Amino acid sequence: GAGVSQSPSNKVTEKGKDVELRCDPISGHTALYWYRQSLGQGLEFLIYFQGNSAPDKSGLPSDRFSAERTGGSVSTLTIQRTQQEDSAVYLCASSLAGLAGGNQETQYFGPGTRLLVL
Amino acid sequence: AQKVTQAQTEISVVEKEDVTLDCVYETRDTTYYLFWYKQPPSGELVFLIRRNSFDEQNEISGRYSWNFQKSTSSFNFTITASQVVDSAVYFCALRAVQGGGNKLTFGTGTQLKVEL
Predict the structure, then answer these.
(1) Distances, alpha carbon A33 to alpha carbons A28, A68, A79, B70, B82, in Å
(2) Do B108 and A106 touch (CB under 8 A)?
């Protein structure tokens, strides 16, 4: 079946502009995660959605970052007033379940969106 | 807090050599999961293996094998008879059930270069 898909693949924007990144999880996966990969910080957790529960936003670096997940499927990560330090690869992952344990919580990653803020 | 250390930043080997990638983790949780992911030049993180903290059996899958030792908090990964296609960045990751929520804590990765 299809894996996690993300769009756009690449995004170049100017400092101060808002950007939206999209993630389509694997069909049937109830848990969705956003991570950021940058040269200086490595792979960092941003936010986690599980079904209809309140998301775990503990990894969001500032209030310029927000994410939503509509209908329990597609998710959008929004960065407002982008800064140059936001330049990174944004990775989305999904798992069959969140806290079920076992194979159900293995996270499968998409190809990422490469964001460059000029 | 959780921490994963991959001390090897870059390893270069010649094809057909065996290579071991080291991973050391820190957590106070008694229940946790360990993972290895591969990131080829295309950028996508590919899941390789998941291990539970209560299962210390080593595992072999084709040319890949994993050595999990709780006594030393290590989860090392060995590629036997390496091939050029194994060239990638390999990440070790930890999910601590109680203290880490549902996030994965990643190491900084090991860049493996397999040359002819």
Answers:
(1) 15, 11, 16, 28, 32
(2) no
